[in-house]
Amino acid sequence: MYENYKDLAKRIRKDCLHMVHVGQSGHIGSMLSAADMMAVLYGGGFVKVDPKNPKAPDRDRFILSKGHAGAVVYATLTELGFFPKEWMDTYYCDNGKLMGHISHYVPGVEYSTGSLGHGLNVCVGMALAAKEKGEKHKIYCMMSDGDCNEGSTWEAFLFAGQHHLENLIAIVDYNRIQALGFSKDICDLGDFATKVATFGWATKTVDGHDFMDLENTFKALPLEPGKPTFIVANTIKGKGVSFLENTVASHYWHLTEEQKLEAYRELGVEE
Amino acid sequence: MRKIFNETLLKIAEKDPRIHLVLADIGYGEIEGFARKFPERYYNCGVMEQHMTGVACGLAMEGNIAVTYSIANFPTLRCLEQIRNDVCYHNANVKIVNIGGGVSYGPLGVSHHSTEDIAILRALPNMVVVVPCDLQEAEAATYAVFDYEGPVFYRCGYKNEKDIHHRPFKFELGKAITVEDGDDCTLIFCGPIGFEAQKAVEAAREKGINCRLISMHTIKPIDKEAILKAAKETGKIITLEEHNLAGGLGSAVAEVLADEGCLDVKFRRMALPDVNVHEVGSQQWLREFYHIAAPDIEKTILEICGK
Fold first, then answer.
1. What confidence tens digit (pLDDT) does each residue in B248-277 have?
2. Closest to A129 (Cβ–Cβ): which among B62, B81, B86?
3. pLDDT in tens, B63-90
4. Among B40, B49, B52, B62, which would you mutate to test the A interface (most chain A Cβ atoms within 10 Å of its Cβ)?
5. Can you name the CATH fold of B2-155?
6. Strand pairing of B152-155 and B94-99?
7. Which residues does B255 contact at the CB level (< 8 Å), separation at least 6?
8. Fold of B177-304
9. Is A151 on the interface with B (CB under 8 A)?
């Protein structure tokens, strides 16, 4: 199973590199840090969705609140068959099929974001709706460090704990870098899991690149009955490509052809 | 007006289990009926307008109708990006209700005036903007708003609004209502300030001027037909609103006239000037101070008619 995750994550990374190169666009660091989690969430069937019935009422909802990393979701969804792989050749391009920030006009994408601090609030509304009706699907929100600077995100932390939304799972891709620098130098989130635990959430800190850790965590959801789940996934921005790893520059990096090929070589994939 | 809105909402919610009320800790003395009757469809988020709007959108994405409700600018400008990116972009069935449109909360000050909301909300794709003028219209508008599927901004009055409509009318979103007939000029208004317009029109009539009076309760989509008909038949149009001069009803009417080439129409906009309303006073006092109460409206009618 872990080999499957590894292969899927590798393909997701390659597709992200391809897309940002085609589009000459940024945010590759934020995509690569989330790729392993996407491989487990979707590849492991933890986010239950059906490409043949994308709007099935009992599907799990997944909202990428860090919408700038939309390509990591596109790469995952095309692997599952939601839309043709050729669409990736048009990412960020004129008359393209795939917008830079994640768009619900793409089959399989639940919700559009791009401005930070929107996803978790909407997930809370969806979680309330499911709870009211006794529906069993889960609502996942993937967030970023920068997302957790936004006051609206903390409004959602407060409210979800108050309302015991155990069908809600927030995962922070905690790569510790945001647009202008290291998050500890900008607005230090410190012991993040403990902070959110005081808001009434069940929390766990995991290695966001360790397939076994991720799988075991997702298998155990909800972490505690009657509480929303908050997972701090320690990740490395730009993971898998040495010249991008743990760099602030990877947020806005535009890959040259040579850099893309070098990244492919490091990943062990071919064009 | 807030009372009739809440009473009507309650009646509609009794029949439609999709309706949820999502608050940001505002509505004392008005929302308790809903909270008692439908506790499972009532959420007070606490003082969190951004979260209120996000939650409402999430509820609506799951097939519900969510109402966000607060006073003045709180449910609109405080959470404008949530309205734009969440509600409008996803065309979510969220009804955004503000209580106290314009300077209803006069002496509370600038923070509690909603004097730019029409301009800002009507610029958002998918948004319908409704500004009822009296209790009858407010009730009819509430039913129409909940029959309509999609985002709506319902700019509600506060209390003690006077009746404007004195004959039966059919309310339809996007279709203006002619309150008084007349062929000498036309006064198009939105909201409870229409009562001032009505007084002015009556006074002008006593001086021999028959001014058509139109309630443009839906600013978006606007009733182009009623505007063009008025332009053609009366040749003179005055707009009146309790809103900043920029971007509101007057601008919307001017856009129609300009787009349709009606450039020979005599046209005046009456609105609040482009200032922060920092003077202290009641709604009526502020209307008079800023020359949008009956005496100044009458003067404008006489002036545009060359009297």
1. 999 999 999 999 999 999 999 999 999 999
2. B62
3. 999 999 999 999 999 999 999 999 999 9
4. B62
5. Rossmann fold (3.40.50)
6. parallel
7. none
8. Rossmann fold (3.40.50)
9. yes
